[in-house]
Amino acid sequence: MHTPIKTLFVATSYPANLQDWRGLFIRHLADALARRDDLTVSLLAPPGETHPRITTVATSNEAAWLANLMRTGGIAHVVRQGGLAAIGTPIRLLYLLRKAYRRQSDGDIYHINWLQNALSLPANGKPLLVSVLGMDMQLIGKPWMRFLLRRVFRQHPTMICPNAEWMVEPLKAAFADVAEIRFVPFGIDPIWYALERKISSDLPAKWLVVSRLTKPKLGTLFEWCAPLFDGQSRELHLFGPMQESLDLPFWVHYHGAASPEDLSKNWFPTACGLITLSQHAEGRPQVMLEAMAAGLPIIASRLPAHENIVFQPTTGWLCDDADDVRKSVQYFENKIANQQAGLAARDWVKREIGTWDDCAARYAAIYEELLKRPIHV
After folding, report:
1. pTM recorded for the entire structure
2. Domains parsed from the chain with CATH numbers
3. Residue 274 bridge partners (DSSP)
């Protein structure tokens, strides 16, 4: 038996429990890593329920500060809001992480989620894996951020792992000479694969939108969908936290933030499909993959993040304008077309993504690979 690899797993978003939508994918990934016998996992993250085999390493003061950061919407939201907090909060976060990294000096490898969380790493030469999401791509457009990250990556055998293929080339352009770039998809909770859909032709067609409520995330949703949803033959149901002050149209059924349990039991089984007309810098939206695993067709705006998972009309429809939305809604309200697209979407996700245990296996193989590389000094 090999000695388990000691992994310090770091994230600034983490859910309080499985009913909490915030950072739930981080919880699923951490749990899957902890289930492996070849790893031990130390978790530096906001407080929340964890797998029994995970060791939480944040001090009480660190945990309280990170919990407050979660309550204010996370570091990206704080920066977007501007003001003094947009400067002071990132500095405080980097200071907190630097202290924690120096304290946790006995690990074998760092697994850091989000590029900015790697900035405080000590120059100790230990292997580094960085999981990159869509919001990270805005950072590498800033010359000073690219310079600081390159300095860190030179000090460690580094693998940068975006969760979407479209991010690979921009990351190579920024870091290929100091790190290896490799696409690693996240996983899907098995509850979505097990879901059975039952759409009634006697009730209004239900279409779902699951998103944080910001103008970029909602995009052209209200403008393009307004002519289609009268509340009688067709309904639009919106789920997600209100993170900006927005006026919602009268024809939208807004339910606030919803847990995966609520969505999987009460909404996804009877929905015609999922709509996302986001203009946000997406990575690979997890809710879209979960909807596909549940057998829902996807109607999406034409973004790089969507083009790699929505194949028209096999698994969904990519929209450039309001007329595309109209055509796609009408197409997928045909029962046969809907079922065929839903089955194709589920099959694609099973084949290309798999479960969180599959994802953990992908990361564990990279850990082994990095540990064989020369230590930087």
Report:
1. 0.91
2. 5-187+355-371 (3.40.50.2000), 190-352 (3.40.50.2000)
3. 208, 298
